[in-house]
Design brief:
- By secondary structure, the protein is of the alpha/beta class.
- It folds into two domains: about 80 residues, Rossmann fold; about 120 residues, Rossmann fold.
- The protein is built from five helices and ten strands.
- A three-stranded parallel β-sheet has the order 1-2-3, with helices on both faces. A three-stranded antiparallel β-sheet has the order 4-6-7, with helices on one face. A two-stranded antiparallel ribbon has the order 5-8.
- Helix 1 runs parallel beside helix 5 and helix 4 crosses helix 5.
- The radius of gyration is 18 Å and the shape is globular.
- About 25% of the residues are buried.
Length: about 210
């Protein structure tokens, strides 16, 4: 394993990407303010200036960047402009969350292009799966194919609706996102020799998940 030097870790500047209500963003920001995350959210990037996440960011005095540029959004940034803007404010470590059912091979059936929001939860319930839950993974050039960094198991109850399941998964998403971002900021993400990322326990450095 390639260990990351943890001595003298500097507080990280974070960029968050949102396009909706931004409840995970709010959890991360609250954890930064409360000291649970060794970092600060210094910029938010969105493709919808009117979304809840952008409104929350403006209320907290966090700069908002619009991406991408389009014919309807002339003030949006091009990819080159976005990278330049972020390089001035943050050390970018991109992670993105997608809900998938479970942590085994069949869970792949509920991830990927076209699976988002209630579509995921409806698919889980229709399949008869007994477990669901959030998956956090690194971003790469493809949709939902980055290395998985963390998962959390959520039971699917016999009488669940998609809305019921979504609410329980979202609660775990908030907690898991904070744990993962904290690990990234504390440089506790270790890369195995086969290229798989794992997280070093803060309380027990010899334990990994």
């Amino acid at each position: 394993m390639r260990r990351i030097q943890k001595a003298g870790i500097k507080k990280k500047n974070l960029a968050v990407f949102v396009s909706g209500g931004g409840s995970n963003f709010q959890s991360i920001h609250d954890a930064c303010v409360g000291g649970s995350i060794h970092g600060d959210v210094v910029v938010l990037v969105t493709n919808k200036l009117g979304c809840g996440g952008a409104e929350y960011s403006r209320d907290k005095g966090i700069p908002v960047l619009l991406f991408p540029k389009s014919k309807d959004e002339a003030n949006g940034l091009s990819p080159t402009d976005l990278v330049a803007a972020l390089s001035l404010q943050v050390k970018v470590r991109e992670i993105w969350e997608r809900q998938r059912a479970g942590s085994d091979v069949p869970s792949l059936a509920f991830g990927g292009k076209g699976y988002y929001g209630m579509k995921v939860h409806n698919a889980v319930i229709a399949s008869g799966a007994r477990y669901s839950g959030p998956t956090i993974h690194f971003v790469d050039e493809h949709y939902d194919t980055g290395h998985i960094l963390a998962q959390r198991v959520v039971p699917v109850l016999w009488n669940d609706t998609a809305q019921d399941l979504a609410a329980r998964v979202l609660q775990e998403e908030h907690r898991l996102y904070v744990e993962v971002v904290a690990a990234l900021c504390e440089e506790r993400v270790i890369w195995r020799e086969d290229g798989v990322p794992i997280i070093q326990s803060k309380e027990s450095p010899n334990d990994y998940s």
